[in-house]
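Appendix B. Worked example

We walk through a single record from start to finish. Start with the input: the chain for Phosphoesterase, Oleidesulfovibrio alaskensis, length 186.
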Amino acid sequence: MKILFVSDIHGSAGAARTVLEKAEAMQPDAVALLGDALYHGPRNPLPADYDPKGVAALLNGWKNRIVAVRGNCDSEVDQMLIEYPMMSDFAWVLAGGRRLFLTHGHRYSPDNLPPLADGDVFVYGHTHVPQTGTAALAGGGVVHLWNPGSCSLPKSGYAASYAVLEDGVFRVCGLDGSVLLTDTLG
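Next comes the structure step. The output line below is what the pipeline stores for this chain.
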């Protein structure tokens, strides 16, 4: 199964268009949208090509493949433009025999993990900083931590990014296609 992960679009039609062009070329089985799709929020600057309605139209073109969760900048009024469910705080996806817990990162985070089992994968956005790594579970075992970064408003000196999971390999990629980080499921 091939999954494209995107987070923190924040209404940037240019960033959404670029990521969805990548999706068109790679034809993923699913697009995991990790929140903050349309609105930039009060703490963020306006992203380039700010066009929430345009982003909604672009994403709606992928509605049959999108699995989405709500970010802290998403609201119920956004659901009026979006043609797929996007108001859940989390979603589970099964890929390659692994359970992936998808969330935005403002309710659950690496510092506040939900109940997970050994080998699960915690996938989140919110920080605008890509990450790959692991965390030990209190009861024993290890979970993978993945963050695709932000495709529109990256932070900490990282490039705008998205991520792909294919054949057990998670790759965070810059919008230019360069690989920024990788993690492999054993």
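Two observations about the output. The chain has one domain: 3-184. The mean pLDDT is 96.
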